[in-house]
Amino acid sequence: MCHRPSRIRVRPDAGRYDAGRYDAGLYDAGVDVITEAIGGLRSGISYAHRVDETDDWGWSHPPFEGVGFYVLLHGEGWAAAENGPSYRVTAGDVVLCPNGARHGFSRRPRPLDDLPTCRHGRSAAEGEVRNAEAQVICGAYRLTRGRVHPFLRGMPPLVAVPGLGAERALVALLGQEVAEERHGTAATRAALIDLMLVTLLRSYAPPEQDDPGIAAALDAIHANPRAPWNVRRLSEVAGLSRTVFTGRFSSSTGTPPMAYVSGVRLDLAARLLRGTTRPLSAIAHEVGYASEFAFATAFRRTYGVPPGRFRHETPTEAPSQEGA
């Protein structure tokens, strides 16, 4: 798991990295990292359903590539990630799993190994359970190709968001959409999942990176991923020697500098492939590759398929009734 990657902050009003201010200089461009992260998820499968639980309920979820959340509508429970703290959750609270870490959700604190894997009682689609101990909306994006955005990978395995507040209307809409299948349900569920994730990510206040040099390099990468970055250029931005920069960057992000640059570029490329009709050569240039061949090689290494196939591939796997 990567550590918190940067000093760059999520602004509550706009959900943007403050990609400009650091001790060594100024970048004017703000990087809307939340839009980037959500855009990368849209290449995967979105789903949501409600689960009614009784008795000493609980489940564990194995690691997956994607993002999920639980909204506890009724009752109380405990959420825990592997090798992480437990969180007490009450009605109205939301638990975000931003990077698909192994986790559990249960009526009382229990070790993950003691919980059944993704086994629920009847879902809302099968009829409401009488005297349910808990009602939970489970929502997720599951990626079949690639990885979640570095911003999401750098977050804690679970984030507990207390109280619904102004999001009650959004939860009510999502609850209506998961209660029954109707025309347009797939489209509306995906849109509501997007809104829920944006809301949760905006509420997350990450700790600031205490290394201004690494923060400056991260700002620069996200502000202009197509720039001809190399370790020398990035170390100059950071105001550090190459050796010191490489060590600090890898320690801070969990990823070597050029691997991080490649990840940012390919995340952007995946969004452009699915969201635009631009030719592959244009996308290769836009994300910083000197040739279409170099781009295709790097993309296939990460996503497992050539860019052209990825563009036209439609996820068809239907998730079972399981947790986020």
UniProtKB/TrEMBL annotation:
<dbReference type="InterPro" id="IPR050204">
    <property type="entry name" value="AraC_XylS_family_regulators"/>
</dbReference>
<dbReference type="InterPro" id="IPR020449">
    <property type="entry name" value="Tscrpt_reg_AraC-type_HTH"/>
</dbReference>
<feature type="domain" description="HTH araC/xylS-type">
    <location>
        <begin position="215"/>
        <end position="313"/>
    </location>
</feature>
<keyword id="KW-0805">Transcription regulation</keyword>
<protein>
    <submittedName>
        <fullName>AraC family transcriptional regulator</fullName>
    </submittedName>
</protein>
<dbReference type="InterPro" id="IPR014710">
    <property type="entry name" value="RmlC-like_jellyroll"/>
</dbReference>
<dbReference type="Pfam" id="PF12852">
    <property type="entry name" value="Cupin_6"/>
</dbReference>
<dbReference type="InterPro" id="IPR011051">
    <property type="entry name" value="RmlC_Cupin_sf"/>
</dbReference>
<dbReference type="InterPro" id="IPR018062">
    <property type="entry name" value="HTH_AraC-typ_CS"/>
</dbReference>
<dbReference type="Pfam" id="PF12833">
    <property type="entry name" value="HTH_18"/>
</dbReference>
<keyword id="KW-0238">DNA-binding</keyword>
<dbReference type="GO" id="GO:0043565">
    <property type="term" value="F:sequence-specific DNA binding"/>
</dbReference>
<dbReference type="InterPro" id="IPR032783">
    <property type="entry name" value="AraC_lig"/>
</dbReference>
<dbReference type="InterPro" id="IPR018060">
    <property type="entry name" value="HTH_AraC"/>
</dbReference>
<dbReference type="GO" id="GO:0003700">
    <property type="term" value="F:DNA-binding transcription factor activity"/>
</dbReference>
<dbReference type="InterPro" id="IPR009057">
    <property type="entry name" value="Homeodomain-like_sf"/>
</dbReference>
<keyword id="KW-0804">Transcription</keyword>
